[in-house]
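#struct-pred

JT: dropping the chains for the assembly here, can someone run the whole complex?
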Amino acid sequence: MSNLNKRPQKTVTALDAITADLVAVLVAVTDGHPKIMTIDHAAALPSGPFQFAHRSLQMGLRAWVEAQTGHPLGYVEQLYTFADRGRSGDPDAPHRISISYLGLTREEEGREGADAQWSSWYDYFPWEDHRDGPPAILAKIIAPKLKAWARSVDEPALQKTRWRRAAITFGLDGREWNEELALQRYELLYEAALIPERVREQGGEAAVPGRAMTGDHRRILATGIARLRAKIKYRPVVFELMPDEFTLLQLQRSVEALAGRLVHKQNFRRLIEQQELVEETGAMATDTIGRPAKLFRFRQGVLAERAVVGTKLPLSRS
Amino acid sequence: MSNLNKRPQKTVTALDAITADLVAVLVAVTDGHPKIMTIDHAAALPSGPFQFAHRSLQMGLRAWVEAQTGHPLGYVEQLYTFADRGRSGDPDAPHRISISYLGLTREEEGREGADAQWSSWYDYFPWEDHRDGPPAILAKIIAPKLKAWARSVDEPALQKTRWRRAAITFGLDGREWNEELALQRYELLYEAALIPERVREQGGEAAVPGRAMTGDHRRILATGIARLRAKIKYRPVVFELMPDEFTLLQLQRSVEALAGRLVHKQNFRRLIEQQELVEETGAMATDTIGRPAKLFRFRQGVLAERAVVGTKLPLSRS
DNA sequence: CTATCTTATGCTCATGGAGAGTATAAATGG
DNA sequence: CCATTTATACTCTCCATGAGCATAAGATAG
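RK: done, full complex below.
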């Protein structure tokens, strides 16, 4: 790098060394329940520092997740890199950044480590599950508190802006619910100091139901949920979460679990079959109620043909 | 963090300290030419280490970009975090990661720093500009070299997989060109050792036209291009690149410059007006050839109404 | 055995958006 | 006046999507 000396500002001092944490949002769906892998009594995501021994960020992540949960990591994609917003309190503490990843697997029997367990992601975000209609806490708790937050400023224009933002992100005032805004919703609640994590740091009265997590972990989880909800609409990633063989209804239930909303059954099947994402195994599902369904498997060919390209699921993007 | 002691593996030693670089892909479009801000004689992106003094990653980035280029940073979003693939050669060197960002601005007169300049992004990726049809180097140079690369392995199945991958990402064999695959294309060329950056490190004969950059910077640029090309289709970000007032044709030319492909004029206007993204200023464009066009400005309201939601541009996503 | 419940699966219909093309208007320069 | 260039208004077709109706194929309660 002979041109380094052309940028003398770039001198790196020991002071500028930092620490990087790797954090995993590891998702599985077991009969219609979306789950994430947690440690520390369901209060934290699997994570650990990026160490010298790690050959790459992903390798480091895999090492930590397997060590802490006993679960191997399959599909992985990077989510976001956060820097602690100087929350540590100690001004002399070194910078600490978190590099977060989304992982998709299947829940497997008896593979949980000592302190590792699967937890429903809706325990952390109860307002995100709209499969049985808008959850009660939205109208009963969240909307009023956000209204109060909006009114708590003097300027009327700002009041209006705040409330509009709340209404858009939470689908209030007759607006449509948009499941992809999970992260924006969390950040709005955080901003409004309705979240224990925030209260913990800066005071205020906590507020909205939903389990808190260590540090930034719930924000990272929200990032993962939002990303996954967006991604299932145009990439065949749901199949990473399915067993080898499944019925179309099971597939639909998984999609619904992730999206937190229901889809039209016939249209769902039409779309899946049109795109030739699956193929029949020939077998039928046993031990079911009602008319037995055909079993399908993911058609591996699509990965080669379209890994790069696209796929659609009937969750409107408008 | 009382529960830290429950995870003894998490001990952080001095050895695990790392350095983080902040890298910016700063984009502007000046009369139909997409440009990026570069330093070091157009061989590197603005960048510098994340330092103790920086209050956040974005603040650090802004500091570096303004110091190196004199250009203030407007719209910014995070791109990706790369870890050097251990390319430094020195096994004792500390880990170094790059946190990259995409920034959008307007090119302003006389604001270039000593070593900072705007460069056309197609200088670095000549195969990405399809506004005048598929560029000649695709059929003349890239396709044959990729075919050779595919054939250079013994196993026929692998040959086929390689070639299919090349055909899909580059739109060969009669397949459709997909402008969003800019990153995959760069990575494929890299893998095939057709890129100077790769040759520089591991030997092989370089290959494909297109200016190289320092370290990972061209990969980061490809990431930025791909992200921006995807994003203009569903978020009103093009306007960050436009002057205050513009004609619809200028807007269209900017979109085309970024996407590297042409769009249907009438449909473009229909979509822009339908969505009420712009409003007339009342004035007309002067100094033009042909019938004078109305001047428009971006309707700021949409940011409040739909910042979170969406917008469409007529670049099909299929 | 039959009514009922549950799920599977096939089909139709209306709507709206997107791609593509035609036609006309308004400027400029010869 | 004509050719050229850009602006702007419409139209037409195709198809994806959302929604609903109808029927099939099992299990189970009575």
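JT: nice. Chain B touches chain A through 57 residues (CB under 8 Å). Residues 1-12 of chain B have pLDDT under 50 and may be disordered.
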